[in-house]
Amino acid sequence: MYPHERSLVAEMKDKPFALVGVNSDTDRAKLKERIAAESITWRSFWNGPEGTRGPISKEWRVTGWPTVFVIDHAGVIRHKSHGGPGMDEAIAECVRLAEAARAKSGDGGH
Amino acid sequence: MPRPLPSALLLLTAFLPAQESTPTPVFADLERQYAAAQQRWNADILAARAKQDDAAIAALRTALPELPFVAPMQQGAAAHAGTADAVPFLDWLAFHGGKPAVTRPAVEALLRDHIETPEAGRAASRVINLLREFGREEALRLLDRIVERNPVDQGKAQALFSRASLFVGTRGTGTETERAGALADLKRAKTLNPGKSLGGLIDDAIFGEETLGIGRPAPEISGEDLDGVAFKLSDYRGKVVLLDFWGDW
């Protein structure tokens, strides 16, 4: 999924959007080499030395990789899937709503 | 204890829904041979892995232990088509047949001719497995049929769980109303003595919808990044977040 993630991050550079990873690799040193090689720029939580059985994926009931959640600007879950159909649409819709909310609160300040 | 009780019990059991059918000797024999073939295959692949013999591993991967049994199982199912004796053959084909061309007709026959058996309930999981082949509408129709007509609690629970998975969870796509219906189905499934393993899956699906469902506030994550620097998911409030569970493997 890296190429898609990279283009998403580039496309959304000036938008109210962040890609946040939860990484389930067990070897952090080896992973950092890969991150440099793959030009991965986004930040990730580390799921710990237990890898796929780590605490964050456990709490989020993740049993397949990749699994993605789209969370809106108010912190509400709006989409979940394995990165398949609907993910990009959900991101675009949430970003539109976040920009609208931002514009509105901006207006309110004047 | 009054004397007539045993005979009354006997009479009662005659009216109970069909339980596990007694397999024909042909099926019992095939099943034994299959178990032996499976054991041999497992031992062979372990040995090949130990020797790092990639050619042998590749050969074993294409010579799966199920393959020689597909045709005889299909013959058995055909020989007893429409009768209870076909059920163990169909059940085997539904779970071990491999290709959709083999598993799909077996699932269809179970749900068409043997809807009241425990095996038809078990087949609910195969309907989801064959979702691409059946299409969503037909899959739903088949699962509805199990929920309505299968008298076995565990079978009904499996079908309710499988049906809910079409609407909720990371593979489900449902409207708000459909998701609420699926949640009710999951709670109903929980009351039907689903057993430990299916019960665990149902619990996770209920938690997944109630706590991690569409429209719910995302739970906080407090953790460390790959450099050991602490940060929180809520640091991103005000932005849309794509939370991506990933691994480089």
Commentary on this structure:
- The complex is a heterodimer of chains A (about 110) and B (about 250).
- With about 110 residues, chain A is α+β, with helices and mostly antiparallel strands.
- Chain A is about 45% helix and about 20% strand.
- Chain A contains 4 helices and 4 strands.
- Chain A has helices at about 1-10, 30-35, 55-60, 85-110, and strands at about 15-25, 45, 65-70, 75-80.
- In chain A, the strands form 2 sheets. A two-stranded parallel sheet of chain A has the order 1-2.
- Chain A starts with a helix and ends with a helix.
- The model of chain A has no long low-confidence stretch (mean pLDDT about 90).
- Chain B has helices at about 5-15, 25-50, 55-60, 65-80, 85-95, 100-115, 120, 125-130, 130-135, 135-150, 155-165, 175-190, 195-210; strands at about 220-225, 230, 240-245.
- A two-stranded antiparallel ribbon of chain B has the order 1-2.
- Chain B is mostly helical.
- In chain B, helix 2 (about 25-50) packs antiparallel against helix 4.
- Classes of the chains: A alpha+beta (about 110), B mainly alpha (about 250).
- The interface between A and B is large, with 62 and 37 residues.
Q: Strand order, biggest sheet of chain B?
A: 1-2
Q: What structural class do you assign from the helix and strand content of chain B?
A: mainly alpha
Helix content of chain B: 55-70%
Shape of chain A: globular
Mean pLDDT of chain B: 91
Radius of gyration of chain B: 23 Å
How many helices of chain B? The count is 13
Largest sheet of chain A: 2 strands, parallel
Mean pLDDT of chain A: 90
Q: Quickly count the helices of chain A.
A: 4
**End-to-end Cα distance of chain B:** 67 Å
Termini gap of chain A = 43 Å
Which chains have the largest interface? A-B, 62 and 37 residues
Structural class of chain A: alpha+beta
Radius of gyration of chain A: 16 Å
Strand tally of chain B is 3
Largest sheet of chain B: 2 strands, antiparallel
